[in-house]
Outer membrane efflux protein (Phocaeicola salanitronis), 447 residues
Amino acid sequence: MCWKKFSLLLWGVCALAFIDVQAAEKEEIKEDQPADSLFLTVDELFRLGVENSLRLQADALDEAMAYERGKTARTSRLPNLQIGLRGGVVGQPVVFQRGLSDAVRPDTPDWSQNYAIDFTQPLYEGGRIRYAIRRADLQTHAAALRSASDRADVKLELLEQYMSLFSLYKQREVLMRNIEESELRLKDIRQMKKEGLITNNDVLRSEMQLTNDRLSLTETENSLALVSQQLDILLGLDESRMLLPDTSLLRRSVALQEYDAYVEEAYLNDPAMQLLRKQTEIAKNEVRLTKAEALPSISLYASNTLARPVSRTMADMYNNAWNFGLSVSYPLSSLYKNNHRVKESKFAVQMNLNAEEQKKQQVRVTVRTAFLRHREALRQVDALKLSVHQAEENYRIMQNRYLNQLAILTDLLDANAVRLNAELQLTSARTQVIYTYFQLERACGRL
């Protein structure tokens, strides 16, 4: 009987101590971490993720290529300068003095040489050069917007894995504590079995529960190692480093704004939305560029040629000639070849406008989903705090009832499972609050 009272007192002290920990909402990971672990904040997560993302590195190359295309397009304003050199053997000419009779083979030099410099400066191209430069600039801006959109997506993907670390560490913490309590409970149950207070069935059930908890702990630790490895690879870290999340993030205040404010901001700042608008500008520019191909071209030209021998007399002397003037050309074939291309370009504009409207609908759905899920997670946190307290109280009562032989072991194990599940649900709801908040940030173009 003394052993029974002592066990009841010991379990009561343990339960009260745990309730105090829950009331303080202590989220720190209690387990001693290995030496190769790394504490990682969200800012550091984003910084390393952006620096080491292969997708963003490809986007940077695309931006560099677009920038160079812009430089190339601007060179079209510069003059064309060409230097030519020709040298070869002069064949023996044959001169027929009467019809095809009396052939004469005059003396001629054996070698010919020709040195030429040609200069062309475009003066008017119907806007083709100007619109080509504008297209290159728009493509450069579009490449930057694609990078911004991909950067936000990369951050959100990293955050999703980062949030899973919170749940896994909390699950490991709860399981380790549960195993410790189960070991103490099993010890007490075995003592009660020796005293003849309970049957061997309770001992077997307790041993089975302890085995299941240890298997769950092993599975959780393996999941932690896998998630850490995945993040290590994405962040450019050693794959063996165990990452420790910043638990203070779960206590960050994340208030909600009005839904319409989120939508308006998303229309203006979402990189994907801005990219579609930029692509519409590119399509409109293509219409102007296609129309410009039906306009005349005017250019200034000049050339100088030094040749030997003289082409008319075949005298073995150098002859220098130069000229300059204006060149005007008009593509008459564009009057019947260009119409369909112009219509196609106009249809492309309509397609891009349609894509903008589709994106607006998608933005409203995305913002609304994140908004409602965020509000739902906030309410779940408040509700689950109460559920955890109730589960703790229920477990304490079932402990007392079991020790006084007023409840069976199954009731106690069920109460323990309810308590464990409530704690994990609370952590999941807290991580969901953070994730949905960043989803809203992503949809609004803030991430």
